[in-house]
Every structure is written in C-alpha cells, then in structure tokens.
Amino acid sequence: MDVLFVSPGPDLRYLIGYDAVPLERLTLLAARADDEATLIVPALERSEAERTPFARAGGRVVSWGETDDPWALVRSAVGAPRSIALDPQMWASRVLRVQKEWPDATVAAPPVVAGLRSVKGDDEIRALREAGEAIDRVHRRIPGFLRAGRTERDVAGDIAEAILDEGHSRVDFVIVASGPNGASPHHSVSDRVIERGDPIVIDIGGTMPSGYCSDCTRVYVIGAAPVEYVEHYSALLEAQERAVAAVAPGVPCEAIDAVARTHLTEAGLGEAFIHRTGHGIGVESHEDPYIVAGNTTLLVPGMAFSIEPGFYLEGRFGARIEDIVVCDEHGAVRMNTVSRELCVI
Ligand code: ZN
Ligand code: ZN
Predict the structure, then answer these.
(1) pLDDT (average), residues 37-45
(2) Which of 37, 160, 203, 330 could make a disulfide contact with 31, Cβ separation 3.0–4.6 Å?
C-alpha cells in the first residue's frame, strides 16, 4: 500500500500514543510508504497533538482552521497514491470521502496494524501484567461487596469504584450475573436481588493509564452452590487449565479452543459452551488473535489473549473462568493469578 490512513481509535493510540476523541472534525494520521507520516488535526486540538510521543519525537503535525478544507492538507501530505490502506474502524463518512478524493486508488482495510498489535513487546507485556495485577486486586475485594439481599447493580457500583481505586483510569465493563442471569454470557447488571446459593459470574475489566486493558472472570457463591453446579464447575476449571497448558509457540489458535471444547464436551457441557475460548487483548479489550475454531493463525511468543471457557444453562445458571495469558517461548504465562476456585462466601 502507498499510504495508510488512521483515524482516532485504538490503532492511532497504538501507533503514535494519541488518545484523540473521535469527533466530526477531521483528525488523521497519513503515513506514506516512502516518506514520514503527517498528523492532520483541527487547530483547536493542536496543543494536545503536540504533546503526543509522535510530535515530541519530531513527527510532523499540521493543523487546519475551522473554515479550511482538511482534505486539502491530506492531499498535499500524500499526493496521488495508487493504493490506500484504512484503519478498519474508520467511520463510513470518512471512507466515502477517501474514495471521492482518490477515485482511481485501490482502497482497502487490510490488518496492517492489527498484525503489529497482536504480538506484544516487553513493555506491552509489562503493561498487561500491571493491568492483570490491578484487576486481580479488585477480584480479591469482591467477597466484601457480596451479600444476600443486595442487587447486582449495588455490587457493580462498588466494583466500578474498586476498578478505579486499584489503578485503572477507565472502567470498561462490569458484569454481575447472578443465578439464572449467569446463563447469558454478556448479561451486564440488573436490579435482581442476589440470594443465597446463587452462583454469581463476575467479569470485569478496565483500561490502565498505560492504555492497556484488563479482563478477568471469576465465579462467587454466597453459601453453597447446587451440587450439580459444583460438578460442572470443576469440569470447567479443568477445561481452562488444559487450554492454558496447551498454549505454546507454533500451536494454531483453533487448537487451544478445541482443547477446552473437547473437555467440556466429554463432561456433557459441549452444547452449553456457546462462545469461542478467547480473544486477544492489548490497547483494546478484544483484538487479534481470536481463539476460535477456524483460526489457523499459529501462536508466536508475545501474543496475549484470554482463555475463558464457560457453560450456560438457560433459566438455571452459568459460569466462566477467564485469565489473560501471554505466550512466551515455553508456553503460557498467566497475567491473572487470583484463585480460580469457585469462591464461596
Ligand atoms: Zn474476555
Ligand atoms: Zn471478560
């Protein structure tokens, strides 16, 4: 590709450390294959852009006034490229404008930056470890928030506060799924009152000041869970352990999914495991590589992803155990170390 255009979003944060808010005024990184990149920003955001690592390292920043045509600046930065790569999350309005500006160019959204992002460097792994430690501290505080008679929403409020207290700069999601709500993997929170004996699936994550994300799921129960649930849970724990143990360089992503799925199928829970085993994580909480059947990508050292098998039985209960792991030369290194046992309160 002759040119890469990146608009505000995770790719821009990853490439140049600029956490620009996506607004209607054009902010665009235009990177030519044969020249330096140019960051085009609205004049009122110039001072923010000047503070980015990109600008501090001498990167070229040009700004446009309220009545200027920002695309004229883009045209003078890139000339007449024959092929243009776009970041895959670019707004449709921008994509259409690019096609109008360069009608003869090939325009595509190849996974240029996604490929770079999927393999982490040492500093990124350090950031993911810090994020993992922070969310583990939140999980350790959760038993203190859970009491029969409180609602999921009450508990979620305390958890959101703890996510910030423990070092995140943003709460990305808080799932508190008690009793039958646990059968919906992406249940958020509700006003359901938590009762004794309810398994409670708690999946939480946030973004650290480093820009890297956390994501960890554990299951809690006040009093005793149903006997059948405890049996299912131990099968799930084993499935998660086996999938983590299967991680090694050269192993296809889909093989990790198969390990977890085979074990749960043997335990009679194959039909109840209704999602993929995991997703990559970094400056976004879901990114490449995806740990799913059909993904033949081979793991390489530096890939970071979740391993989160679960079971979901409609109208009854559910469970998921989720850790972030990093593949190194030998196998998986867990970023989450808080106990994976069913946490009985
Ligand atoms: Zn996850
Ligand atoms: Zn999660």
Answers:
(1) 97
(2) 37
